[in-house]
Amino acid sequence: MGTTWQVQVHAPGAATRSLRSEIEATLALVIRQMSHWEPLSDLSRFNAAMPGTPVVLPELLFDVLVRARQISAWTRGAFDATSGALVRHWGFGPDRARQRADFAAPDDDTVQRLQACGSWHQLVLDESARTALQPGGMELDLSAIAKGFAVDLVSMRLQGAGFPSHLVEIGGELRGAGLKSDAQPWWVALEPPASDAPIEDTVIALCDLAVATSGDYRRHVELDGQRWAHTIDPRSGHPVRHALTSVTVIDESCWRADAISTALMVMGADEGLAFADHHGIAARLLERQPDSWREHRSRAWRDMLS
Ligand code: AMP
Ligand code: MG
């Protein structure tokens, strides 16, 4: 997944030695199915399939696609895991083309063509055969949901193995479960988006809760003095260009927090905050302004953290 992971388990006196290999096996499974960095992953197999081919998918990948499509419908396409070709043409794909000196942004015709073959409306999933139909040219990119999904999966497996008190983190997405023996939940502090940001420290108790952050402060490129997030607005076919620098979402599921934080990042501060308030989502959106920062907290975030 191109990132690091950490797991803490609270299990005084229990043998935890085999957990590392179980966790690594779980992550390897997710990568084998969902990574676009791996040419032999099931996702890459779908992306390379001939037009009109129904591609049989393994259970977890199919499950994530069903969830991704739900989030796309719900966010009216702000989140769209079928935008892989757009992401790649804008230089944010696995080949990191934007960092090359000869990178050229796609022209309007190309953007329209890519939007036409990469849209969640065209993702045809057959639950009984467990297939996804490759319409031709569709490239899946699960980078905005798979890390959160992997966090939930590791957490579920730890639970199943008899370790109900744990904190799982993959690439900044976290889930805390259970309490420690002093009846304390897992407390986590949110990293400030920049050292000069006068944003109050936020500490969250993750008791069967997950938190995910989407933003340009960790992953962005600077070109001609402009910051570019890795986020594409599938509705326009262009990278997002507003002043939002990070969106953090708290939810019971990490996969949802992950996908929703990306969707709000696409929507921008006004639309994103209205969406979060309308749907009771706990979200914090940070905007970079020329000499200052603006913090927007949704109602559910304020209720949860006050
Ligand atoms: P995240 O850090 O979770 O917001 O995920 C960002 C990554 O998801 C990007 O690097 C792209 O690979 C992919 N991506 C970009 N825009 C979108 C979008 N609108 N919907 C879904 N995935 C996206
Ligand atoms: Mg995300």
Explain what you see:
33% of the residues lie in helices and 24% in strands. By secondary structure, it is of the alpha+beta class. Helix 1 runs antiparallel to helix 6, helix 6 runs antiparallel to helix 7 and helix 7 crosses helix 8.
How does the overall form come out from the CA principal axes? globular
* Overall pLDDT confidence: 92
How is the main sheet built? 7 strands, antiparallel
| Count of DSSP-assigned helices | 9
Short description:
The protein has 306 residues and is an alpha+beta fold.
Layout of strands and helices, then pairs:
Blueprint: E1 5-9, H1 19-34, H2 42-48, E2 53-56, H3 59-74, H4 84-89, H5 108-117, E3 124-126, E4 131-134, H6 146-160, E5 166-170, E6 173-177, E7 186-189, E8 203-206, E9 209-215, E10 220-223, E11 226-229, E12 232-233, E13 238-239, E14 244-251, H7 254-267, H8 269-279, E15 282-288, E16 293-297, H9 299-305
Antiparallel strand pairs: 1-5, 2-4, 3-4, 5-6, 6-9, 7-8, 9-14, 10-11, 12-13, 14-15, 15-16
Helix pairs in contact: 1-6, 6-7, 7-8
Adenosine monophosphate binds at residues 79-81, 83, 87, 92, 141, 143-144, 214, 230-232, 234, 258, 262, 265-266.
